[in-house]
């Protein structure tokens, strides 16, 4: 019936009324809903244009009505024969049918970024915020060029990236500065004793403030420089490296956590309140809320993983492709050790 209406073929009103009450229109046939209430839309557009138009209007919470159906049909003549939802969104935005995405409510509230405990913490926070902003803007530029996001989404997410720069807290910077001051070598090595591309912003901050080069040097020289950063000479370094097996294992786990966290930091998850957090932040919050186990469920030939709360019997999905699964595993391992 939906395809008949889309083609402009006659359909009895009684049949239309029956279909209007069917739940199937709430899933894979949502594009057909406007055809039930807007006779002017029937037969006005080929299906390849009607589907993305209805999808974009629905996601934008804009109704297709008898008053705007003719205008929309005319505008759809400006898009390719089989347009993507991005192309339709861009057209309707350019023509004033759609408005810019509003800022999520969370961004209308101030964030306490805290205060730096020292000059290094201040530089580190700035360096990390700069890198996160620049990486995000580069990702968005690439996504826009490839046509995978609309102009509206590009504008909103670019604005959020700029706002996030100023909302970046001093928490990690202060924590890292304390590790330098207290010579917490397990922590420092887990962050700094990595290849050049890993945690590059932190290494740059070390070079800027302390003049210690950690990028572009051999592994042994890098390790020695990290101990130098903590004020330890070669003898103290040798003594520390002779630590017990259990302590070295804790250092290994810390490195794995840092490695997995860095990967999970590259993904973005939108929370229910509209705030966008990294995959690592989402895992940290979820574990803190009592989700302390990873469970797996086989679905045909694939396996689905989830973080589970054994007390409340709740589960939230984890994914390998955004590194939340890997980070959740090592985080729980670290908590258990």
Structural class: mainly alpha
User: What is the count of helical runs?
Assistant: 16
Assembly category: single chain
How far do the termini sit from each other? Answer: 61 Å
Which strand-content bin applies to the residues?
A: 5-15%
What value does the Rg take, in angstroms? 27 Å
Spatial order of strands in the largest sheet: 3-4-5
Percentage of residues in helical conformation: 40-55%
Overall form:
elongated
Mean pLDDT across the residues is: 86
The description of the largest β-sheet is:
3 strands, antiparallel
The unreliable regions are none
The total strand number stands at: 5
The helix/strand order is HHHHHHHHHHHHHHEEHEEEH
